[in-house]
Amino acid sequence: MRSTDAEVVIVGGGIAGASAAFHLAALGHRVTLLERGEIASGASGVNAGQIDSVGWGHAPDLQAHLTAGSVELFQQVQVDHGFSIEFRRSGGLQAIATPEHSDFARHRVATLRARGHEIELLDAREARSLEPALNPSVLGAMYSPRRSQADPVLATRAWSHLAERHGARILTGHEVTAIEPKPTGGFVVQTEQLQVVAPSLVIAAGAWSGAIGAMLEIEIPVVPVHGQMWATRSLPPRVFQTISSVESTLAWDRERRTMPASGRDDGEPPDLTLREGVRVTRHLYGRQRQNGEVIFGGDRQLAGWSATIVPAGIDVNRSHAAEICPFLASVPTDRTWAGLMPFTLDGKPLIGRIPNRDGLWIVTGLASSGFGRGPMAGKLLADALHAGTSSPILDEADPARCVREAARG
């Protein structure tokens, strides 16, 4: 087995890991990234490509940094670095279908605007002026002009290419099989082909972060959540914004208001659409890709490590999409796909140093919005590792709140 060394080893080639690799390399660190498949072969490459943001606001919190910051980073990759990632600051509409949705949206928009965020409440006429395909029965929409979109695979790979430009080694087809802490500090990370020795290790393995943690005898409370999507054939331009619905936003807001700070009492993550096979809400998000495909998805449920399609969920999601954009009712599904997303039990990300383990860092738990928040999550992690300490903005994402030493039996 070959042996090599680095300053930082990153395990995971999703968008957060690739961004961390680029930003660490740009800061002068010798970085090796190990990915068991190809770059963007996990959740970062199979999502809708939506990038959520309502701007920085008057007092930016972690969510503002992850969303508004990531929009700026996507823009830099395409405009400043010259990568064609199909980035477009298209804006996004969240459709309002019922009076209850309308009441909730009015309060939400007022709250966010008071904090300096960029969001508007549109009536039906204004919403259909922006998105003519909307159902005439829609009562209105929340409109976020900073919501954006990009191609997930192209964008994730752009960060890995940028990392390589700055000297990082990006090694695909390298599944980590063992990690051993060195008695003198640092780690020995092994794949079937290679052994890498480094003083710092970053776990960026998405839904598989818990398995990497187990190699180090630590428990990382990240669970795989099954998500799935469907696409039409290529169509002429019909959908111009990113599209979603207020329905799930309202349901999950209610859930979180009663949820303990440590997570739900049943040990499941928040923001699911099905629990033990019973639907608790519908969730919808989608857009039209540059190649003309209209893509939608939204279902989220615990399904172990299965990434197979659940047809009933596709049917529910198609019905929901057709309620918002009626033309979709007559357009057949051309393809479907699924993936596994990393959810933490309290719904907050994990970004920072793992307690009581010198040189061990993590960036994961970005749930269903890992693509849209991953670039800034990777940058914040890189900045913290470079400085040796995390910014206060990462307090909410501190791994010390929930990462524990594994019980010894």
Structure description:
A hairpin with a 4-residue loop joins strand 19 (285-288) and strand 20. This protein folds into two domains: 2-82 and 152-221 and 346-405, 3-Layer(bba) Sandwich (FAD/NAD(P)-binding domain), CATH 3.50.50.60; 92-145 and 223-342, D-Amino Acid Oxidase, Chain A, domain 2. The strands form six sheets. An eight-stranded mixed β-sheet has the order 6-7-5-16-19-20-15-21, sandwiched between helices. Strands 9-3-2-13-23-22 form a six-stranded mixed β-sheet, with helices on both faces. Helix 1 (15-26) packs parallel to helix 5 and helix 1 packs parallel to helix 9. The protein has 409 residues and is of the alpha/beta class. It has nine helices and 24 strands. It has helices at residues 15-26, 62-80, 99-114, 124-130, 152-165, 209-215, 246-258, 311-324, 370-387; strands at 2-5, 8-11, 31-35, 50-51, 92-96, 120-123, 140-144, 148-149, 169-172, 176-181, 187-191, 194-198, 200-203, 218-219, 222-234, 242-245, 274-275, 278-279, 285-288, 293-302, 335-344, 350-353, 360-364, 404-405. It is globular, with a radius of gyration of 21 Å.
Summary keywords:
FAD/NAD(P)-binding domain; 8-stranded mixed β-sheet; 24 strands; D-Amino Acid Oxidase, Chain A, domain 2; alpha/beta; 409 residues; 6-stranded mixed β-sheet
Topology:
Elements: E1 2-5, E2 8-11, H1 15-26, E3 31-35, E4 50-51, H2 62-80, E5 92-96, H3 99-114, E6 120-123, H4 124-130, E7 140-144, E8 148-149, H5 152-165, E9 169-172, E10 176-181, E11 187-191, E12 194-198, E13 200-203, H6 209-215, E14 218-219, E15 222-234, E16 242-245, H7 246-258, E17 274-275, E18 278-279, E19 285-288, E20 293-302, H8 311-324, E21 335-344, E22 350-353, E23 360-364, H9 370-387, E24 404-405
Helix pairs in contact: 1-5, 1-9, 2-9
